[in-house]
What we know:
Layout: H1 3-6, H2 28-38
Amino acid sequence: PADFVHGPEGFGDLPAMQPAGGPDPRSAAQFLCETCAAHP
C-alpha cells in the first residue's frame, strides 16, 4: 500500500471528522426525488 502518500487511513493523514447530524430518515430514492424537484 502507498501509506507514504495516502496515510495509513487512506485519506492523506487528514483528521477523522465526526458528522454534524444523524442519518437522513428518507430513503435514497426519496432524497433524490426531493432534491431534483427542488433544483430543476
